[in-house]
Specification:
The structure holds 2 protein chains of 2 kinds. Chain A is mainly α. Chain A contains 19 helices and 2 strands. Chain A has a two-stranded antiparallel sheet. The chains are: A mainly alpha, B alpha+beta.
Chain lengths: 406, 386
Amino acid sequence: MKPRQRIIELFSTFIQLADDLFDRWVTDSLLQRSIERTLKQTAELDTAESSEHFWVLYWYRLWKTNPEYLATGHLSAYLQEVCYWVAQRVAIQLTSMQYKLSDCFQIAIASLPVVLKGYNPNQGASLKTYATVVFSNKLRDTLRQQGEANSRTDWGLLRKISQKQLVESLQAAGFSEVAIANHRLAWTCFKTFCAPSETPATRQLSAPDRAMWATITQLYNSQRLKQVPPIEAQATPDVLERWLKNCAKQVRAYLHPAITSLNLNKSESGSGEILDDLPADAEASGLADLIIREELQQRQTQQTQINAVLKAALEKLEPQVRTLLHLYYAQKLTQQQIAAQLEIKQYTVSRRLSSAKEKLLLALAKWSQETLHISLTSPAVRDMSLLLEEWLQEKLASEFSKDGSL
Amino acid sequence: MMLLSDTSTQWLEIPDAIGTQSWQQSQFISIPGNRWQAYLNQVCLQTMLPWLQEKSTIEPIVDSMDSLAFWEIVNGSAIVLGTTRLIVIPTEAMDRSEFRVPQEWIDIPSWAGDYYLAVEVDPDEQCLNIWGYTTHQMLKSEGNYDGSDRTYCLDGDRIIQDLTVFWVMQQLSGEPTQAVIEPLPALNSGQAELLLQQLGDRAIALPRLEIPFLQWGALLEQDRWLEQLCQLRQSRVNATSPANLSQWWQNVFEAGWQAIEDLWAPQPDLAFSFRQAESTQQQVRRVKQIQLGDQFPAVLLVMVLETEADERTRIWVQIHPQSGETYLPANLRLELLSMTDEVLQSVQAGDTSNYIQLRRFKSRLGTQFRLQVAIADTFTHEDFIV
């Protein structure tokens, strides 16, 4: 893939795939005009290296105040590479021919709203790092869920989903609130009586028999009045069977959303004037720029400190553990490959990696508490863990290559 | 380019022995979904304990009822790890879109925990995935209360999915984990008795949703009432319709009654007492696995039928240890009861009994009787009609 050099490209171009490989960058002209205009208003240079972080924060802040802005488009353009690499890495590991790189890319990029909603620039890790984690998890979970959905009977599938997923599936299919309440209760009653009886497994769970439908119906009719608001209508076994089959159908559809065109530059079709999409007040915008620059400076200082803390913590780890970290983060071997190379079990690799990460995270957390006076709550330490991950994946690799001692 | 970080989630394999044992022990629960919930809870807890021990080097102590009869009613377990109270909530759901915690674990003061672990149990792959955690405080402040199934639900993206964080938190001094919990109004024993009578009814599939939460929580908070409730439901869930022995001759058997060779491999030496030599009559032989609570190993109830010339049925009854065991649990009792609960025969296992049996008896068509298997205070029974 040809890396994008200029800020304008970074925030206005999208990946075009051909034959399931990177083909070229395609420009979204609306986004291009938007960023050109904005560039003129600020003193930032149009070279990716110097001001990439500035522009990420700039569009992120704009997105926060109004998600309908072009900001989403700019950030989507920006995260194309990250998404592509995540998709590629996963696609290579897949043994089934069912998923192409383009499918993986689609699935991952669909979680862009989750990335933007969950990202918190104050915790220090970059948007790219955060997006990598979200894209990876989303892709991993979606592939697993689609695989399960394909290998399960309707009844086995209905046991394997959360209530939230059921409700979301029905909402996506346009069910009314009342209908959703009815189906949800039917599902609860179904789960109370339809469970494995021969072997402890649910994948091939068979349909309830007549007697079981009768007990399910009985439970439904006794529970319906206790609902808030109460469900008025009695149900019969036939109705419940139809509802539940429909639930399974909607869940399958929800897990396999129709793959839309890969052409992501949707803003092209938007009719909005660029001027409407820009911050109206030049003065306010100048102030915002200042705030962003301050934030970036703070982050820079913090990163230097963190780098020192983590390097010191790394020194204290056993050489054997450092080798492991090197293989995993610098040489980018998989756990399986490491296990083969060191002739240990993959379980051991995984355990030692987590234990090393725990030690580094503990050091970082204690330092933050003592130096930055951050109170150590689970969410705060989770943010630090993301920072640690970023450091391991970016800095650690270069540290190892610099001193060459490993 | 960055790697997928795959060191932070935790997959654990369910050991075969734990899976098999939990499955067998859970069979006494008659409502299929509740039986399944009990099974999932037991494999989850048993698989997690060694892992917690290994990771923390502290001996984890189970601090909730560690019994299938309990999990038939409420999903989840409490584990004390040093000074921290963990609540483990198993789920079957494969998606991580929400973490659903029964209200009991949040609003009963003595039940509430510091940390709540979300565990997907995947029985098809025989593994667990501990996919995230949260605190009591976060569940209470950021979670939604769902009145339809009395749970607190937290969106999947608010769950901390990185377990590295959990283990680091265990090494740092106390973050505030618990929100304020209002005490539940106390019940007097009269009220409790009434509620127990009402909830012990086996026709009630979901007792936790049957009465208002304040009463339900207050009832469960007292160990003795909780135990009583479990026992009531246990003994009553067995009260199924009698096995119809005349049908057995047509090869129609009630659920659980299996051919000898299905439950026993290799074939036991039954010849010693079920000697066919004395008659040339045809026999029906069936065996059923009997589970007495979950404190004792399952035993096998063996029935052999023959028809007498006067059309009465001759019946042999024995109890054997299950395949692989040599002795019956000491003091195990087998009793023959009339339908008015009069004890007609009784026999008790010693310390080293390989089996126990009743004296053969004969019954006319239409006669009903009951076989009761008991040890200490735990008992179960099977009803028959000849």
